[in-house]
Write the structure tokens for this entry.
Amino acid sequence: MAFWFYRGLRKGIVTTRYPREVDPWTRDLPTPPAFRSSRLTRALADRLVAACPSEAIRREGEELVVDLGRCTGCGRCLAVGGEAVAASGEFLLATAERSSLVKRVPIGGDREARG
Amino acid sequence: MTVDGQARPEAADALAQELRRRALALFGRSLHIRTVDTGSCAVCESEIRLLSAPHYDLHRLGFFFTPAPRHADLLMVTGPAIRAADNLLLKAFHATPDPKAVIAVGACALGGVYGEDELVHGSVDQVVPVDVYVPGCPPSPLALLQGLLVAVGRLEERVASLSLDLDSDRRAAADGRPR
Amino acid sequence: MRHAIAGLAIGAAAAWLAAALAALAGSRRVGVRGASWLSAAGGAAAVASGVLLALHGAGTTLHLGSTTVGAATFRIAPLAAPFIVLLGAVAVANGLYAPRYHEPGRGASAYLIAYNLALVSSLAVLAAGDAVAFLVAWEAMALTCYLLILRHHGRPDVGAGAFLFIALSEAGFVLIVLAFAILAARTGSLDLATIAHRAGRVPLGWRSAAFLLALVGFGFKAGLVPLHIWLPAAHPVAPADGSAFLSGMVIKLGVYGIALFGVVLLAGGPAWWGLVTMGAGAVTAVLGILYALMERDLKRFLAFSSIENVGIILTALGAGMTFTAYRQPAIGALLLIVALYHSLNHGVYKTLLFQEAGVIEHATGTRDLDRLGGLVRRLPRTAVIFLIGTLAIAALPPFNGFVSEWMVFQGLFQGFRISSHAVGILIVIAGALIALTGGLAINAFARAFGIPFLGMPRSNQAAGAHERGQPVIGPALLAAACAFLGVGAPLVLTALDRVARATTGLDIHARLIVPQLGVIPAHTDFSEFSPTYLAAFLLAVLAVPAVIYLAGRPRARDRRPPVWDGGILAYKPRMQYTATTHANPVRVTFDPLYQPHINVERVSEDPAGRSGPVHYRFSVTPIFDRYLYRPVVRLVRAIALLARPIQSGDVNLYVFYVFVVVLIAYAVYAS
């Protein structure tokens, strides 16, 4: 019998079970950012807007508008944002409505600082 | 989905809805995909190519790649829709018979990385009607599979109910998929 | 009836002589028109004469001259009937074609005189009753054809082509004279009918010598390989209707000569005569079409295709002689009928193709296939007629080429009835070679129609072609004749059967035509098919998709997207196949035969050609010119050089020669 047959039997089935379950290694994928609105200040928000090379982050008044569609997962906002920004861990982002990918995060940090 | 020459038929049109439902029922069992590259860096193509590999194996879900748009049910479009590829994209789109769907794959196709200027449209939906958007740079093959399954109605999309505010009470999708 | 036949033939000759006279006024349009219409009228008379002769089956004799001047006998034998019909058909078609083709002037005047005299000479060859009349008419035909090839004598290659024609014609003529001389000496008469009667008493060795001399001598005219090299040289340079006449009629005179000797004059012979003819024919057919595929010049291509078809005719003729020698006279008669039928068919469609080649040349200014393209939109009527000619010559139903090639195969496949296995195998091999040529012919003619007519124009000349003022009635008549000869094959074969009966004494009508318009190959349990029903069936089959389309049309709402082309921006003519590349698979397969010379020149060392064009030159080695004719010419020159000292120019030496000859004559007379 063929060598690959025995080897395959020993290794088992390696095909992903998606959509029944998501593989555990996907935890390490680069993903768009998630924000702690309580730590966001206007100044930090402006720094985040300048850092994004894809113009995925905009500031509209007291809100940070994040376009998940434009995000490339480069991680610069994570580097700049410190505690305010963390990886969201979300990568299954397909949608039929383009507007569903535009998320708004309130900038609550100034209020917190002011007390 | 473009049905009978009309993209995204109105919800009120019962006949179009019925047609759409029947098309989805068929597509859910067997779907032929044609990829169109409108000027991408080809990393999205690498991820798409991985879908045929044994680890992801899209054939088990009933999806197949085809080189001819005439045989395709769905177009997977990558790249920021450079203007020089207009002819190509439109010809492929019109050559694909109705009913058909279009998936825009990758951050470039969704408007990121390159803005609109004299060389580039910026996003694919400036040129052809897009039915499903798959973000990522590149989208992981699992994200691509999710996009395909959403396009044929076998999976519900999750991102609408997603919140990026970690301090908020509203969290991820109700179906509670493990991360 | 006999008088009607003779009368019509004489009327045809008179009309052609009158046309030659009228052509003296050919500097004016009315002269050209008058000559052409007289020529066409003569042609009609010839067709009528030939048809009546075929149906009536008996000839008539005419004596001319007296004992003082010398007499000539003209007798129209039934064997000449299909050739007379062909001559008439070609004359009619050319007569209708010429007014719109030729520019009035002195050149056209001279051409038309030569052409009409050539018609008269051809008729005289076919009607010759004795050897001298035959030979005189033959030479007259050769000379007038030489003159008509020289119509555009100022242009390059015309002189060379005409010279090659006349040189090989004369070479053949010498052999024909020898053949007739042998027969006349051995049978004691110059009259053809008397020779035929007495030929049985001539020893076999002399008869074989006469047959071989006739085969080679007439083979020069017919275009047997390797005697064919004048055809591709002379056909492109002659005017289109001249080439049509040459290919349609003149080479058939060579076939007529071989048939005359093989079947009539020598009263059949041993089987090896037939085998040699058949073998020569099969090789000619294959080589003809192989060389045709390498040609870019449309008229040279058609010339090689004529060589191929002559090969098929001679294969059928030779196989028929073999069958008759092996006591299967019915199949022999069938193959004779088929050879005559194919001669007629080929004459009709080759004339058509050459005429249309002339139209293309006038409309675009070029004969080069690689410069044409897209002519189907610019010359639509020409395209349809050319397509019919192409379908006919590629032997596709329901046209005449299909029926005659089918019958050739039906005859050849009955080789198993021959008692000698070796001969049966040889006949099967010949059948296989003819099958190969059939396949290659379809390839060749798909190329000949597809490259110039379909696709995009490959040059501005082709793009600017238009059909105004181009002749159309002549070719259209021939196209209709192709259809008639194919669909009405039972009628034509009945007439040819009468010809065969009169020639060989054997009537196979009952085993040839079945009452239900079917045609069977002379043996009731072999096969049967009906070209008439086939044509009706094809029309009916075409009706099915037509009905489906018409019935379904209003209901379906189509979306008409453009053709999927891979998304390219625009088609360019240089993206298409050229004639050379279309034939490339055949070229590569038969490379040892072609021995091509391929020369690639680059402007720079860059292999990708980025800093300049790359020139690719391809040419086929002319092996017959190089390895057969050039050594012979060198030998003749060497001999002539040896003999040169005799012509010293010194009058005293010449007087000395006279003295020596007188001495010798005196010595011979005295003893």
Summary: The longest strand of chain B covers residues 31-37. DSSP finds five helices and seven strands in chain B.
